[in-house]
From TrEMBL, chain B:
Matching InterPro entries: DUF742
Region feature Disordered, mapped onto this chain: 1-20
Superkingdom field: Bacteria
A UniProt-annotated Pfam family: DUF742
Organism of derivation: Streptomyces hebeiensis
The name this protein goes by in its record: DUF742 domain-containing protein
Amino acid sequence: MDSATSERAAVPSTARPSLASTADNGLKIVIVGGFGVGKTTMVRSVSEIRPLNTEETMTRAGEGIDELADLDGLRRKTSTTVAFDFGRISLDARSVLYLFGAPGQERFWFLWDRLFSGTLGAVVLVDTRRLADSWYAIDRLEHHGTPFIVACNDFGGPVHTEEQIREALDISPDVPLVECDARDRSSSKYVLITLVEYLHGLSARRLAEAAGAAAPETAVEAGS
Amino acid sequence: MSRPGRDDSPDRLYTLTQGRSRSDTDTFDLVTLVVAESDPSPGMQSEHAAILRMCRSPTAVVEIAAELGLPGSIVRIMLADLLDTGRISARHPRTERAADRLPDPDILEQVLVGLRNL
């Protein structure tokens, strides 16, 4: 006989597909961009789960305030909350790539080190009609030393040349710049592949440099 | 639909973690994969039981937080309790830095293979 009532709500109908039992390595890529630029759309187009949303809060004791300020209880605390979307891609039996769509606004960057240390790299998603919206994100990624590429989501606005966009964003010629349609799975996939190929090139080059630089050059910098 | 965590009073969140607002929770990355090592037991805090059910297969910390509708900081504290009592195990991300913050080329090659096969 069925029980007429159930206290416990059924598992939400989202029914996320489970990861393989062998999954043991989570990887992160962050997609940064302003509101409405298509971050969630891009996550959705390649994710194996419907994008989920979560939030993180961090209470920061006033930084740079010395211990004395603590004694009278005046130490200021600020609480920062950011919400972000994410999706995931199972890469193989052991590796799972999580894609985070993150707002580029100021408070988000307080949480960067705690949440996104260990991130492989970032995609800065831009709307070419609002290039200035991306300046802050690019500045912060450079500050954190996180490698990134720029992907221009096609909103059918006026066409800019690559040079115009590079100049407006003030990015180095080495940073890949691609066009995409965030709604399209293969286009979003191409963006991610471009990022990871770029990271691979950087990483391989640094390793080679590290191996080759074991010898001279030190004298040049030492002179003062 | 109300969303726990966002609209709840802070008191409830405080109760969930037995009054702690932080603990040694930095061990849990957003993408640490959590695996249940036991079934929920009767009388267990319902959120703990929910975590154990959810983690019958590996589940990332961030997915647990989203599913429970609770802030990540609260979830990490609960996970630390479950880890301490041996009810879960944690598979931490391996993103060794090969050089100067950049990931190992071997890991990146694996990622590329996975992405191309999508």
